[in-house]
Amino acid sequence: MERDESGFLERCGEIRKLAFSMGDPLVVHHYDADGISSGAIVAGAFGDEGKKFRRECIKKLDDAAIERYAREPETIFVDLGGGNKRVNELKDALIIDHHQTEGIGKPQANPILHGIDGGTELSAAGAAYCVFRKRADLAVVGAVGDMQHPLVGMNRWVLAEGKMGGVVEVEDDLSFYGRYCRPLVQFLAYCDDPYIPGISYREDRAQDLLAELRIPLDARNAEPGNPPAADGVKGKNQRVYADLSDDEKKGLVSALAKIMAGSERARSAEELIGESYVFPKRPRDETYEANEFSTLLNACGRHSQPDIGVRVCLGDETARDEARKLLALHRRMLREGIAYTSKNTQDFGTFYFLDGRGVIDEGIVGVVCGMNLQQSWKKPIIGIALGDGGTIKVSGRAPKSLVAQGLNLGDLMKGACLDAGGVGGGHRMAAGASIPKDRLNEFLLSAGKHMRMDRPEEKG
Ligand code: C5P
Asked: 193 in helix, strand or coil?
């Protein structure tokens, strides 16, 4: 299909008019970081206009949900809906989505329908921004939350709008996660992209390096070498990377570059520096930088408190402390999940398999798979967890190289659900499904069958 950005924006304008013509719609959005930020963009736009609406957040649009919404006179789906033909059975419904879509008869703002890739260059929050033209910072958070970093294509247009409006700035700096909120030791030790030999996954070595560079960990200028907080959440006086002086930053970056240049896998020190997106109108906390903000939202959504995330998005300060508590819980559960994954991932031939039932929560199994996935792998990872109502939650994540070769996990999940029952979909690189708990074998056999390429290679 030919790419048509102006056709897409025109369609978005029509969807805005249709949305605001509704009397009291129910806004239904997804519960991940992109779902929460896109839901907040829609809720914020209705609030700004003083228009009536209700909002709810769901994990999946399954038959039970469709039957509930059949009673609603007006519904707006955000970050979901485009992949489920049963929305055609509903009364007045609008869709703002970026997932693969087919056979939908309801009005829809979806970049995919205009030749723009919703998996890599526009998130649901980006689509919601294109509809309502407000809160571009949240559009950037949604994109980063949906693994669309660094921003390309249509996201670049949203970014330019955000810069023009003074709500987004681009920083070129050390590309590690947590420049604004992660204590320095964890900041260094828990970054593996790029992998720093001797430092990545070694808190003790990270701490030694900081001591060697005479970079104090404590804002009160205590001697270098103070112990970091046990849970990786910034303590009151702990310094973060953003607190360092220019000289300290330079010293740290060149020390890391030297380590990388001297390592066996000598990789370019340029990999250390990358683009990130910050929000000058937001406080310098977990909502200041896009990656950290999206993690905060994921923590809210994946631990059944998406409304706190929406409130944080819309600037409600009273929601911040609650969100931070969820973040601490989220980090602990991810750490436990990853520890389990590193010992329990099995090679199923065409994909790696992680059985997290009873160990990993369904809300984070996808995130754990994504963190476990290595871009050098030659096959995707499929993880499962116990879902609600007698189901199994399935999550898949694929390395970019496979997607470039034509793998489409979203299609694979859909296809396997046709064989095993259940509902699934998503993107080429990240997809999920819910299946009946007694149909796992059928699902896995079918997933293997649908895997386009046979890749017997080992993790490497
Ligand atoms: O839940 P998880 O993070 O693994 O989901 C990855 C992607 O798959 C999300 O974009 C989500 O929208 C999609 N998905 C889906 N249907 C499901 C579960 C997930 O389309 N039942």
From this structure: coil
Write the pLDDT tens digit of every residue in 245-295: 999 999 999 999 999 887 665 567 778 999 999 999 999 999 999 999 999
C-alpha span between 376 and 90 (Å, rounded): 44
Cα 52 to averaged position of ligand 1 atoms, centre (Å): 29
| 415-450 pLDDT tens trace | 999 999 999 988 889 999 999 999 999 999 999 998
- Helix, coil or strand: residue 123: coil
What is the value of pTM for the model shown? 0.86
CA nearest ligand 1 atom 6, residue: 431
Domains of the chain in start order, with CATH, are: 5-164 (3.90.1640.30), 174-331 (no CATH), 348-458 (3.10.310.40)
Our mutation pick for probing the ligand 1 site, out of 28, 32, 382, counting the most ligand atoms within 8 A of Cβ, is: 32
Rounded Cα gap, residues 325 and 303, in angstroms: 11
Model confidence over 325-335: pLDDT tens digits?
999 999 899 88
How far, in Å, is the centroid of ligand 1 from the Cα of 98?
A: 12
Residue 424 Cβ < 6 Å to ligand 1: yes
Closest ligand 1 atom, residue 433 Cα: 21
State the distance from the centre of ligand 1 to the C-alpha of 366, rounded, in angstroms.
8
Residue 233 identity (one-letter amino acid): V
Q: How many CB atoms lie within 10 A of CB 358?
A: 7
